[in-house]
Amino acid sequence: MRTLENLSCPIDSLSLSRDGNSLKCDNGHTYDLAKTGYVNLLPVQNKRSKDPGDSKAMVAARQAFLNQHFYYPIVEAVLETWPKDNLVSGVRVLDAGCGEGYYLNEINKLLLAQQTEAELTGLDISKWAVTAASKRDKSISWLVGSNASLPTPAERFDAILCLFGFPIFNEFSRALTDSGLLLLVESGANHLIELRQILYPSIHEYKSTHSEGVDGFELVSEEARNFEFTLSSQAEIQDLLSMTPHIHKASYDGKEAVKKLESINLTADIKLRWYRKKLPE
To answer: What pTM was computed for the model?
Structure first.
């Protein structure tokens, strides 16, 4: 279910109301809806660069890769691990760092199949990503915005999903209801290990993130999922490489070695952690 209601002005935090093809606050700040239906709630003064987030080329590569459903087991894992007391009809969900919309779109399909109505919102700092996402699924609200300053009032969502993104925990806590849940999906020690062994002369020791816990949240569950997949062309390999940090971190020699591959068998190793918001004592 798509709604662009109950959002906040990113400049003064006042409520936004719909006025034709625009959202406006009482101070007159106006945000026009794009032709594809998304709204840009990232004002210039909140940008750290002229064109923040993933570039148009990176978004295209990610879309080409994800559309092949190599990572579909991650979608299934999200639904399988989602605490049942939260996953009920009417649940309000934010995908914080939604990228080009693959995960939220596929989650929406599964929710509809099991007749669970949900109000879904996807937010990303990249206008190119949100533009692509808004063409993918018209039933979802798509926003250009920042996790550091979510353009929403307090207690707006029942669940926030952050898949391979950049969590801002105090903002997530503010935007979640008192019983709200947060999902973090992150890479495990052996994620894409076969590719990394080609890209780098040595593999750094794996360090688990948030091993000491997350301020303001308590861990509900943690699960590791592993699966294998095969890339059968250089184009698929380059699409994957382009959507990972390795495209910037790997050496020239490593990337040249990857260019010689015709196919590669890969391991996906991910961790899913569900957290519940803590109430002040």
So the answer is: 0.94
